[in-house]
Structures
1.
Amino acid sequence: MTFEVLILGSGAALPTSFRNPSSQYINCNNRHILIDCAEGTQHQLRKHGVLFQKIEHILISHLHGDHFFGLVGLLSTMSLLGRKKKICIYCPEGLEKIIQLQLEVGHAKLDFEVIYIFHQFKEHKIVFEDKQIQIETFPLRHRIPTAGFVIREKDKEFRILGDEFKKAQLSLTAIPFFKAGKDFEDESGEKFSYLDYTLPPKKSRSYAYCSDTNYYEKIIPFIQGVTCLYHEATFLDIMKKRAKQTFHTTALEAATIAQKAEVQKLIIGHLSRYTSDKEHLEEAMSIFPNTRVAHDGMLLLI
Ligand SMILES: [Zn+2]
């Protein structure tokens, strides 16, 4: 099953020729999710061939402009393109008013339903789940209320060994038992162990997004052991003081969080003020070697 993250914008507040402000598109088991929607997001989606109408969930971390100024434009385009299917937006409470005002003053209206689910900001919460995935929010520490996100595959089923199953000429009613990791007993009372007819489930994957935030150890339990962590690293450690004052993080601090949370890999982003990413990478890798610096257009296979 597909689990991919496409980085649409890897920059901080100031767009540069190389980096757009924050936005990411995620396909997790054919659930299509947009995280943050800065200015330029529509162009980036177009450039990378993402179909707008596939997006079902939009997660907005907070109401600094470099994380949502592209949203009304994207929603308007979806409507112009004939969207009828509802969309769910997980966001701070003020966003609904902002979008409505922008539409009202232009006498515009959307031809589809927008369902707003407001962040609680105080606790970890599952905000969406179905059979295959779940979306979680948790509080970060920034100048204004800000949420982090985890997108997680649910536990997977045991995989049936087709040949062994056929050879044993078992009833098809055994399949749900084996898939759930349970033994099966047929009508005559004969028992069959799931271990003889299955391979263990594939590991469930997870992706965490933490932008923007101070160095904040309280998030560690929520992102513990994730397959991939995207963490902001707006500054280098030499500017640690400035990072703290502006409620941002340094590359070294992001790597420390990754190490303490025992994640598998780290992607650092939300950087605009640097022309090269070499120092960010070196700094982070000194603590957490499996680090990469995000760039626009980067496709992560989770
Ligand atoms: Zn911010």
2.
Amino acid sequence: MMLRKVVAKTGETVYLRPAVAEDAADFIRAVDGVAREGAYFLRSRFEVNLEAEQTMLASASDRGDLILIARAEGEVVGWVTLLHPRAEFMQHTADLGMGVVGPWRGRGIGSALMQYALEYAAERGIEKVRLGVRSGNARAEALYHAFGFVEEGYRLRDVKDLEGCYHDIIEMSWFAPSPVPAAQEGGSGA
Ligand SMILES: CC(C)(COP(=O)(O)OP(=O)(O)OC[C@H]1O[C@@H](n2cnc3c(N)ncnc32)[C@H](O)[C@@H]1OP(=O)(O)O)[C@@H](O)C(=O)NCCC(=O)NCCS
């Protein structure tokens, strides 16, 4: 699974593919732009070292991470990341983060990115994909529900924004269609 061509609801051709080192500057610009809106992420800037980001993108697949970008009209217009946790007992899970730059929202790009990411997860045997969304982010919540994510709980007042307002984080997860059965509590007694 590599390059995927999709058509935005507004007709533009959008290409989805894992990011490579050469995408670093455009990727940083896209993430920083959404971060600067101050309403969605856990920080208001994404100012990272270009070379470090190039190295990070080039080595993502070696770490088992997916960093997928959507490109249209020469720009990175959206992305989704699926990060592999380090903890030994969480190897069946991944952490998802995503964004679409302002003018490109509502055109189906977020849905296309999510579709690709969940297919990638299922193909690699990832059983659980986890994310956190700020309560009140209606578009993101709608997208996650549409793809079968379920709410697991709220982290109350987890975010304090630039205006000093508190926001809860909703923990949501997607479970692969045929998960391995959970371990039985207490065993069979045999
Ligand atoms: C959340 C986000 C990634 C979704 O990407 P997108 O390209 O805008 O999403 P899509 O166009 O695929 O639309 C997703 C769904 O949300 C629905 N939707 C759009 N606006 C909505 C709104 N204001 N309220 C509720 N649902 C809404 C759409 O109906 C669509 O469903 P449909 O395809 O069945 O019609 C994008 O809007 C974004 O980056 N927002 C800011 C950053 C962010 O919130 N990131 C996620 C942090 S957890």
